[in-house]
Amino acid sequence: MLKVSFYTFLIILGVWVGSQAAFAVDPNYLPVATDNLTASTPVQEPSASSTSSTQPATAEAGETPKFYTITAELRETYDDNPYTSTTDKTPTFETSITPSILFDVPMENSQFDSRLTFDATNYAAESSDSTQISADFLARFTHQFSDRFAIDVRDETGYFYEPSLFSYAGSPYQDGNYISQSFSTDFTAQWTPLVSTVSSFSNSEVFYDNSAVAEGEDYIQNSFSQSIGFSILPKYTLVFAGLYSGISYNNIGRGYNSYTGMTGIDWAVLPTMSASVRVGASYTQVDEVGGDTTTPYATASLDWQLGHRSHLEVGYSYSVVPTDVTTASGQVASRVYANFNYDISRSLSAHLNLAENYGDYATGFVQSNTTGTFTEWDSALDVGLTYHISNHFDANIGYTFSDVSSQLSYRDYTRNQYYFGIRGSY
Known about the structure:
This protein is mostly beta strands. The chain is about 5% helix and about 60% strand. It contains 2 helices and 18 strands. It has an 18-stranded antiparallel beta barrel.
C-alpha cells in the first residue's frame, strides 16, 4: 500500500511540474556547440540524473529571459540486470524523480553556469534499501581577458550509485555509492596571428562507500598538457604537444605515471565542421609491476554542427588509461565514441551515445602471479526519442545497453534498460 502511494505521489508531482513548466528538452538532445554547461570528464551515463546538462529555458514572446531554470523529470525504467551480475540477474522496475536547477549568469567578458541535480530512484524488486539517492553539482566559468587570452574552468562533484561504461571514472560495475570529483581548466593564448598555445590541467578523484571496494578502487588522477599550434594554411594548424598523466590508488599499490609526446593537425573543414588528428608515443612508469613500457599514442575526432540543434561528434583514441582491475596498474585502450543529436521535425528529436573500449592488459601492466595478460571489450549504447509536446512539456523514450565481455569470464555481464519519462521546466 505504501509503495502504491509512493508511485501515485510521484506521478502527480510529475504531471504538476509539467503543467507549470515553460520549456524543456532532453539533455541528450542538446548539442555541445550550444550547451554552456558540460562536464570536463563525464562520470555517469548520459541520463537525466547524471552528466547531461540542461540549457536555460527559452523565453516566450514578451517574457524576460531568466537567469535560472528549474526542471524535473519523472522516469520509469525496466532494468534486467541492475546489479551488473554475471549469473544472478534480478530484473526490476525503477521509478525515479529528478529535480534540477540551472543558473546562467552572463557577465562582461565572462560567463558563469552551474547546475545542481538530485535524483531519487525506487527499485521495485528491493525489499530493503529500495530507494537510492544521488546528487550532482556541475559548474563552468569562462573569461576572455582580451582578444588573445582566455580561460575555461569546469568542475563536477557528485554522489552517485550507478556505474558507467561511458567514461573511465570509477568502476563499470554496480559497486555501491561513491563520490566522484572532476576538475579541469584550459588557458588559451594567441601569441601572434600564426602561433597559439593551450595549457590544460585536470584532476579527478573517486571514493567508494563500501570499504572492500574502496580498498582497490579509490584513486586520485592528475593530468597536465601543453600544446603549441602553428597556422600553416588558413584552415590548417600544425600542433605539437606534451602530456603527463599520473594515477595513484589510495589503499593499494598500483597506478602509473605516463609521459606522452605527440604531433598532429587541426582542420577547419567547414565553418560548422572541424577535425583533429594526433599521433605520438607514451612512456609509462608502472607501479608495482617492475617494468616501464613504451606504447603508441593516437587520437582522431570530428565535430559537426548539422543545424541549430543537430550535432555529431565522433572520435577514436589509443592510449594508456586507468582500470578497475585491482591486479593491473592500467590498460592500453582503443576507444571509439560517438554522440549524435538530430532534429527529425520541430516536435521530434533523437539522440544516440556510443562508447566502445577494447582494453589490452599486456605484460608490464598486470602484476605477476595473478591473472596474466588478457583482453576485454566494454560496450555502452544509449538511444532515444524526445517528443516536444509543447513549450511546457516533453516526453522521452529510450534504451540503454551495457556490456562487458572479458577473457576473465567472471567479469562478463550484459545489462538492458528501457525507459520512458516526462519532463517539465520553469
